[in-house]
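Quality-control log, excerpt.
Job 1 of 2 completed; input and output follow.
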Amino acid sequence: MEITLEEAKSYLRVTSSDEDALIESLIAAATEQVQDITRQSDEEFMANEERALIRIRIAILFTVAYLYEHREEADHHALNLTLRDLLFGTRKEGF
């Protein structure tokens, strides 16, 4: 599952390259966070069916946007609850 810098910048409506490094870091952090929420190994995460991949991509972009917009005062508990709701259908019950 690869969210590109260009895709994230388009989602964020960012046109300059001033914050490219920050956005790339947020993509990596968001991808890990979404994978943790789904409780999937790397192999499982990459092997999701198309419908699940769409949900996962949206969750990653949402997380990037949330972390970008709330970098000073992010409520990670609320973010995790939202991600659990978004990813309910792809989340494993346990590890």
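Job 2 of 2 completed; input and output follow.
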Amino acid sequence: MEYSKLGNTDIVVSKLCFGSLTISPLQSNLGIKDGVCVIKEAFDRGVNFIDTAELYENYSYIRGAIKGRRSKVIISTKSYAYSYEGAKNSLEKALRELNTDYIDIFSLHEQESEHTLRGHSEAIEYFIKARDKGYIRAFGISTHYVDGVKAALKYNDIQIIHPIYNKAGLGIVDGSVSDMENAIKEAYEAGKGIYSMKPLGGGNLLKDVEGSIAYVLNNPNIHSIAVGMQSIEEVIYNTALFDGKEVPEYIKTSISKKERRLLIDFWCQGCGSCVHVCQQGALYINNNRAEVDAEKCVLCGYCSRHCKEFCIKII
């Protein structure tokens, strides 16, 4: 496993970051014991970096997985807090539920632009003070926006950027893949730590896993890549790819046989764009949000390209 320092920080991370949303109640909803086993398998195979968020409600999984090895694991979490008190509550919750004295990276979740950052100024103030006191090691943002990456460049105190990036541009709200690449390059050169998300476009690029992963790995301006994993087989598959090794055939076979489903995230606004482009007639609007008829869905992922809110995933 390759390791590198995140920008100008002293935090050293594995090239592969464990994206924990997939195991959480919001997606596959693994039992605690099973989730802990999956995370531990990744740690045992050289991954030392895990990404989570307050929204994911999976701190209990991570607490179990880091027991006895906290100093060897880099934890990054995120919060939507915008007030001083809200930020304080988010940090205290993370420390308590993870049973740790510090968080390596604490970020503002899904920042869009300089205007969004100004709206979170109280939270930023709190997190900077918490960093100065040693409760967090680095402060950052996550973003689906090119403008979010660019806005972070104006803040010296924003050390880490967690942008969405994949070969199809899925989830990039305000620009193309090229636009995001240019913004990431500028941030990297400015000394920001860059770890990207969604290399498989929320599962919508599963038909070309190796090509999609290789595309992001080939970007020299990304220190680490968060990949969602929900089984030991997926951990073996991804660590092999990141180690430059051949994936065992039995692992490929096992993963290919896994039953998957289309997930419509809870923040769907029911705009209907996905319904209009689904050639299978598998999507419909009910109670102002999209729903899927699993018997008709062929998991082509085409609908996801037309979702402005990035609500559609294959898990």
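Post-run check on job 2. The first strand starts at residue 3 and ends at 5.
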